[in-house]
Amino acid sequence: HNAYIGALRIKRDVGEQSSLGLIATSFNFIERHNQLAGVDGRLSLNRNTFLTFQLLGSTARRFFYAPAADRNVYRTGHGLAYFAELNRTGRRLNVQLAGAGHTRDYRAEIGFTTRTDTNRWSIFARYNSEPQPQRKLISWSALYTTLVQFDWRGRSQYAYHFPRVALNFKRQTFLQLAAYYDYARLFEEEFGARRTATRFMARR
Q: Is residue 203 over pLDDT 60?
């Protein structure tokens, strides 16, 4: 038996630094059928600010695992995926805001999806001082990254904060100071059957 696979990609430049595109894929095999379509683009908001985005929708006819029933169910599932990234670059200040998410039934047979039923948003900021080669402390940088991850029901899955400072001295000497704090939360249905009123999991 053969799998029938197709892919379509259209991209058009808009202005000097912007573009818009269309993507569509199709995958058909025994008891596995998947169609996907979406739009994407890169928009120049000004000389230093860019917005990159992608929005995808999928439909799949295949087996989906049902945690409440603890079995695979052959059904049709519809899904949504998105990605957005806003970048602002400057001489001293750089800021990036990024987000991505996939609903539970999103599938992309022609592609790669790490985790479904999740949203992941992050902020990265960096400030660089003006270099002064004549001083002992030539320059310094302050950086901060924070990330939050949650499912489509609003339950937190993962988060972290990561502030740091970089100091650059003469003779190629530097010092970095950082702090890190994170949080992780796991849900039983991500690893197997879900506990119900008639089914309990053994404690270990």
A: no
